[in-house]
Amino acid sequence: MDESCAHRPFVTLAALLLIVAVGRTAGATPCLIFVHGKQTNTDTYTDWNAARSYWESGLSDFIRTATNNFAASWYVVGYNGTQAYWDPQAAGEVANEIVNATNGGNDGGGNHCAQTWAQGGTFWVIAHSMGATVMDFILGNTDPGDPDYDLNGPYDVVGQRLTLAITLGGTHRGSQLADNVCGGGNFFCQAAGLIESCDNATYWLRSSDDVQVKTFSSAPARNVYLTGGYAAIFGPSACLAGEDDGLVQHASTYACNGSASTAYNNSNVCDDNNKQKPSGFHNLDTAHENHDQERNDTNRDNRQAIPTGLWTCGGGPCAAGTTVQSSLSTAELVGLLYATPTSSQPCDPGSASVSGNLPCLECFPGTFAPTPGATSCTPCPAGTVAADAGATSCAQCPADTYSAGGASACTSCPAGTSAPPGSSVCTANTTTTSTTSTSTTSSTSTSSTDTIASTTSTSTTSSSTSTTQSSTSTTTSSTSTTTTTTSTTSSTSTTQSSTSTTTSSTSTTTTTTSTTSSSTSTTQTTTSTTSSSTSTTTTSTTSSSTTSSSSTSSSSTSTTTTTSTTVSSTTTTTVPLPCGPAPATICRLAEPGGSSLNVKDSAVDTGDQVKWTWNRGAQTLLQDFHNPPYSSATYRLCLYDASGKPQPLLEADIPPGGTCGLKPCWKPTGLRGFVYKSRQGLPDGVVSLKLFAGTDGRAKIQAVGRGASLQTPALPLTLPVTAQLVIVNDGSMECWQTTFNAATTSQTSFRATGP
Question: Is this structure's pTM higher than 0.70?
Answer without folding.
Answer: no
